[in-house]
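Thread: Newbie trying to understand structure tokens

Hi all, I'm a second-year student working on a class project, and my supervisor (Dr. K.) asked me to get a predicted structure for one chain before our next meeting. I've only ever worked with sequences, so writing a 3D structure as a token string is new to me. If someone could post the tokens and maybe explain what I'm looking at, I'd be very grateful. Here's the chain:
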Amino acid sequence: MNRTLAGLHYSESHEWVRTEGNIAIIGITDFAQHALGNLSYVDMPEVDDEVTAGEEFGAVESVKAANDLYSPVTGKVLEINSELEDAPERLNVDPYANWIIKVEMSDPSEIDGLMDEAAYIAFCEKE
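---
Reply by user tm_fold:
Sure, no problem. This is what the structure looks like when written as tokens:
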């Protein structure tokens, strides 16, 4: 079983979200990084870009595949993890310690539509 963290919210496209007030910190799950293999590139939006829940905001690429990233929430990008530009493999080492973007949520209630840890584990078992 792939590793998950309690207290996070999860999307069906394998992004995780940790909230701090109305800020959503978004990354990819352990399940996603295992499926992709060794990551070689992370495409991220620009600071101040708007992201929309369920819509693409970037991509991760590996030797095996490229996968789009989908925002679990709607809002404005406050920060990108620039460390990933030179070291995308950090997501393979620890996908929960290495976030991708931070978003100021325009509708924090969108979090309620995401899965908790137990629901995400059950979802992954069907994948």
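A couple of things are worth pointing out once you decode it. The mean pLDDT is 95. Residues 117-126 form the longest helix (10 residues). Feel free to ask follow-ups in this thread.
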